[in-house]
Design brief:
By secondary structure, the protein is an alpha/beta fold. The protein contains seven helices and 14 strands. Helix 4 (96-104) links the parallel strand 5 (88-92) and strand 6 (116-120). Helix 6 packs across helix 7. It starts with a strand and ends with a strand.
Amino acid sequence: MAFTVTVLGSATPYPRPNAPCSGYLVRDEEASIWLDAGPGTLAALQEYLSPADLDAIWISHLHADHVADLLPAVYALLFADLRLRRPIPLYGPPGTAARISAFLSNTGRAPIEEVFAVRELHDGHSARVGGLTLDSVAVSHGFPAFGVRITDGERTFAYSGDTGPCEALASLADGADLFLCEADGIDPSAEHLTPTEAGRAATGAGRLVLTHVGHTVTVREAVRLAAEHFSGPVAYAAPRTVFRV
């Protein structure tokens, strides 16, 4: 049975009405994974399940538009009406625990270990969550940042995170049934992809879904430009869209 990727949000660099920042819910019959936790995605996540029922969280990098909703998640899981069975495994870049703790430490160190079991990512990091395997790949974003391949052994979903052009993108996308790739803007950058570059990066994947489309290009134009360089189907990661892998 195929697993699914639900778009919680894809806006950048700040949430818009009914459009949270980057965040996705990956689910199979055994596991639910919150993939990036941009502003607005905690509320969107609760349309599908309680945060207390998550099996894992995976964070691509520590820019606020991908991680900020971990902060209210701590309040929800530690100080409110939600009850955890155990701390949620949280896979994130080096420094993830310190960053969360520092923000929440107004009257002393916040006991985030009661909420998150933080495990730091590195290039080649692999984790098993239910029936899914998550393989992290370092990408180019000016500081530690990762993409991920998630597979159930038969089908593979790949996510670029935020990245500029780099050799890792080819291996990330190659053989993926679905490739979720950022296409931030029209101007080339060392830290982000244009839609054209996203289309080229998707070579080897079955389907391409664009996310993190910035203000310098419309969604329609981004899809058109990517499709000029990718022969498979191209779509946009609109909030609440569910993609079957």
